[in-house]
Write a structure and sequence with these properties.
Layout lengths: L19 H10 L2 H11 L2 H4 L4 H14 L9 H27 L33 H19 L3 H12 L4 H8 L3 H21 L24 H7 L1
């Protein structure tokens, strides 16, 4: 199923909508729990001593909301890629700041607050913005799911674990994974299928997997796949 066909619940361009409901549906579609897992996996000891994954997540969402009218809408997958790029940028900035501060080169400490991002007025106002996806209660739910994802991924054998991570969480296709890992595309496909089966089984034990239409239920009912187009890629292999 093509990307645009799968997004029936998402407006043609939700980034142009002023509706809080539209924004919330978009954020749910990119699987916030999987984003927390990714942020956690990329934070080193230095950042963990000063920030949480939730801090970075909130900063990135605020940046996305503030700049939403300048982001070209090409579907959920592309928007999630934009978010992942923004995550990398925020983490690099945080590391640079913390490193400079330790060397005495920074004047102010990084607060870790989402309000530390200052939006350019030309991109539209940063406030008011939908906050339900970043409330403590919602973040606690995302955290619980992210931890379940981590436990499930840990049950996958090492030869498949990285491939499952790169495909489900990092959105790489099989050829990109093959290049990154030095494994043939055929082997990547085989290991992914094997690892995905084990990963799903573990998530079912966590009571987090929908047994019907799981790929399209992208959050608590189906965290096994941040993106439903995995089905498409598998069918093409």
């Amino acid at each position: 199923m093509a990307d645009h066909q799968k997004e029936g619940s998402i407006s043609d361009n939700p980034l142009l909508s002023e509706s809080a409901d539209s924004w919330e549906r978009l954020i749910e579609a990119i699987n916030p729990a999987s984003l927390l897992y990714i942020i956690d996996s990329r934070m080193g000891h230095l950042l963990r001593s000063r920030l949480t994954a939730e801090d970075i997540y909130q900063q990135v969402l605020l940046e996305a909301w503030s700049r939403r009218k300048d982001i070209r809408w090409r579907g959920i997958r592309a928007f999630r890629s934009w978010v992942l790029t923004a995550v990398n940028s925020r983490l690099r900035d945080a590391i640079d700041h913390e490193t400079a501060e330790k060397r005495g080169g920074a004047a102010a400490a990084l607060t870790g607050s989402p309000l530390s991002f200052h939006a350019d007025d030309s991109t539209g106002p940063a406030f008011p913005w939908p906050i339900s996806s970043t409330t403590p209660g919602r973040l606690a739910i995302y955290r619980e799911i992210a931890e379940a994802m981590g436990r499930a991924l840990d049950t996958v054998p090492s030869e498949s674990r990285e491939i499952v991570h790169l495909r489900l969480f990092e959105q790489l296709d099989f050829e990109e994974i093959a290049t990154k890992t030095g494994v043939s595309s055929a082997a990547v496909s085989h290991r992914f299928r094997k690892g995905l089966s084990l990963y799903r089984r573990s998530l079912r034990r966590e009571r987090l997997v929908s047994t019907s239409d799981g790929f399209r239920s992208l959050n608590a009912t189906g965290p096994e796949a941040p993106l439903s187009e995995i089905e498409d890629h598998d069918s093409e292999s």
